[in-house]
Amino acid sequence: MTTPEPGGGPLLSATGLHIAFPGRRGAPTARAVDGVDLDIKGGEIVALVGESGCGKTTLARSLLGLVPPTSGAVTFAGRPLDYAGRALKAYRKRVQLVLQDPSGSLNPRHTVYEAVAEGLRIHGYAGDERAAVAEALSRAGLRPPDRFFLRYPHELSGGQRQRVVIAGALVLEPELIVADEPVASLDASVRGEILALLLRLRDELGLSALVVTHDLGLAWNIADRVAVMYLGRIVETGTVEEVLTAPQHPYTQALLSVLPEAPGDPVVLTGEPPDPSRIPGGCRFHARCQVLASGEAERAGVAGRCRGEDLAVLSGRGETQVACHWAAAGGAP
């Protein structure tokens, strides 16, 4: 099975994905992912952006095969994801996870060599293990690699530890990595280095990536395409330039308004995101929407629809799309 070429069909695709968790002691079911279509092409970096609790990590874990969907499907290279043990193990060799906290994802008792070689041993690698580990460390920017073989995580800087985690993913030669807040725990001086590394891996290896983040500035620096998630659904998607320079959804506008370089005053959203076990009717953002609160939606004639009419799930394809009655009515700039 070959990886789809950039610009061709999707490498990874989610269609109609729903993930629900039963409540305890009769509490309502939490709809963590509530209808998502998302495509990632070969050689493409997609940023999945949103506040904490919006369902980003649950969606990412489902795409990795760690959380089976309640309904809907995940396909990889045109084939449905098989959750049987052997098939899932083979899939996880091709799709690797990079966690946000390198200190928490590295065993403090294992050397760098052992940490990177672990995946090879799990998957029964029959080649030259030492050469594979050295190549992965080198690709991750730890050179000369043999200088790091016998070092322990506590002997490394935060950036070096994150590079070890990335090397542990690269050693299996995956086609896609899922990076969950890959630079959130790093100093600002190191973040740019790790982002540059991910871009270089995309360019040199044709590696695809889903980068999960709350940081739109990070998305601007690394992504080809961005998907903005709110309360279990993607509410706006498109190329990073289109979405971040001309956002149409009020939620995206609010997220962008707090960036240091953003023009005008920050938009302060009232309250916390609603409970996923009690998703409101109509647009799921309407209770916090600054456009509705200011009367702009009323003037555009869509306030009633905002409060009472649900919006369709956006397609996972690459074109710019927005789930917003006000934007659809021409209210967005």
UniProtKB/TrEMBL annotation:
Residues 12-256 form the ABC transporter domain. InterPro entries: AAA+_ATPase, ABC_transp_ATP-bind, ABC_transporter-like_ATP-bd, ABC_transporter-like_CS, Oligopep_ABC_C, P-loop_NTPase. GO terms for biological process: peptide transport; transmembrane transport. NCBIfam families: oligo_HPY. GO terms for molecular function: ATP binding; ATP hydrolysis activity. It holds the Pfam family oligo_HPY. Gene3D superfamilies: P-loop containing nucleotide triphosphate hydrolases. This is ABC transporter ATP-binding protein. Keywords: ATP-binding, Nucleotide-binding, Transport. Belongs to the ABC transporter superfamily. It comes from Streptomyces alboniger. The keyword Nucleotide-binding applies. CDD domains: ABC_NikE_OppD_transporters.
